[in-house]
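Our preliminary data section would be incomplete without showing what the modeling component actually yields. Below, a chain of 326 amino acids is followed by its predicted structure, encoded as tokens that our downstream tools consume directly.
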Amino acid sequence: MEKNFSIAETFALPGIPKGVSVQGYDAPNEFTPKVDPNYRFRRALLSDFLAWMKEGRGETLYIAGPTGCGKSSLVSQVAAKLNLPLQRVSAHSRLEFPELVGSHTIVGGSMQFCYGPLARAMKEGHLFLLDEFDLLDPGTAAGLNGVLEGAPLVIPENGGEVIPPHPEFRFVATGNTAGNGDETGMYQGTVRQNLALMDRGWILQFGYPEPSEEEEILGKAVPDLPKLVRSRMVEIANEVRNLFTGSDENPGSIEVTLSTRSLVRWGRLAWFYRAIASSGVNPFLHALDRAVAFRAEPATRKALHELVQRHFGTTGTGRDGTNGAP
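Predicted structure:
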């Protein structure tokens, strides 16, 4: 049973006119993501996303931003809050269009056509989320042209079945680039997408949260971490990002970064390993290795260790002489 949820009441956003609403459901179904109680909505991004849900009927939404900045989690948590069913697929270079539509499968001894995630979303009015869209082969992406224009989905493999898009069907794609390819070399495998395809909808640009927002995210995920520790960890994360992205004059000098996702992982591991500080082992370095640094080159790992030691000392003591250990 459908019901309307007021944007202002559900998400407490200032500046949203009262009476403006998006549709949700009274209860979740099997395809509805679970609510993450520690998730923090970023108001500006949420406002844009809900504006698209309200005004972007029949148009796709493309969300571009660096790895781990919260692109997919925004979509899934809005769906969770509104009890919306979500079909989620991770794109890759060998993904073929029939994988999205469906295929014939033996069920109970007989051959039946089983709908793929895109066909089910169009048929039943679900949100469809295609992660890492810029990894998709352009030929496969071209097969989405009709769908993104609002045309019915035709399935030749199922006797030419025609699925008109359900009124509540929404198509969201995410990627690390804006569909123009990656000239930085930071995101291997991304592909420049067809301009006509990228012109078929809205585009949002995400970045990492502001330091105060990221401290709050880290605090919700690891509430026992002291505020000073959270602040220093966020400061380190931003220094690592600057080394990763570089500038127009100086390209990035390291090959890994600390996304919001990996920052939260680092915080959880630092708290988990906090007891090893008593044996002289720095829990921040120990946790950082397991969160991100073990996949870095030796020189980068050394640079990350030196950066952490500048903030927390060699054994986890703060740079100002206070005990920075968790």
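Confidence is low (pLDDT under 50) at residues 181-192, 319-323. The first strand starts at residue 2 and ends at 6. Preliminary results of this kind motivate Aim 1 of the renewal.
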